[in-house]
Amino acid sequence: MADTVLIEGLVVETVVGVYDWEREVTQDLVIDLEMAWDNRVPGRTDDVADALDYAAVSARVETCLQALRPQLLEHGAEVLAKALQDEFGITWLRLAIRKPGAVPTAQAVGVQIERGVR
Ligand SMILES: Nc1nc2c(c(=O)[nH]1)N=C([C@H](O)[C@@H](O)CO)CN2
After folding, report:
1. Is the ipTM of this complex over 0.95?
2. How many Å separate Cα 69 from the centre of its chain?
3. Pick from 12, 46, 73, 101: CA 20 to 30 A from residue 31's CA?
C-alpha cells in the first residue's frame, strides 16, 4: 500500500533543548509527517471516519510535544512516533522534526525517523 496522508510544516511551540537557557524559553519546532493509510476507503465513502484525520493528528502532535518538553529532538521524535502509531493505528510513518534557528548559519537542523512496516 503506497497511499499516505501528509502533514507538512506544522509549527509547534514548546520547551525543547539541552542547554539551561533552553529550559527557560519556548522555541518553534517544524514537523513533517508522512503516514501510511489506505485512502481507497475514504476515497469511496467520502466519510472522514474512514480517513486518517490530519487535523486530529496535528492536534495530537502539538499536545504530545508540549507535554514532553524534550531535550533532544531524537527523544521527541521517538515518543511522538510511538504515540501516533498506537493511538491512530498507523502502521508506517516517516517523521521529521526541524529546529529553525538552532544553528544560525543553517536554515534548519533536525532529525528524521521512519518507524513500522509499509
Ligand atoms: N542530534 C542532536 N544534536 C543536538 C540537539 C538535538 O536535539 N539533537 N540539540 C542541541 C541543542 O539543544 C541546540 O539545538 C541548541 O541550539 C544541540 N545538538
Report:
1. yes
2. 14
3. 46
Q: What is the 1 CA–ligand 1 centroid distance (Å)?
A: 35
Q: Looking at the domain 4-99, which fold is it?
A: GTP Cyclohydrolase I, domain 2 (3.30.1130)
Mean pLDDT by 10 residues, the chain (118 residues): 95 98 98 98 98 98 98 98 98 98 96 96
Segments making up each domain of the chain, as ranges: 4-99
Ligand 1 and 21: CB distance under 6 A? no
| Predicted TM-score (pTM) of this structure | 0.97
**Residues with catalytic roles:** 99
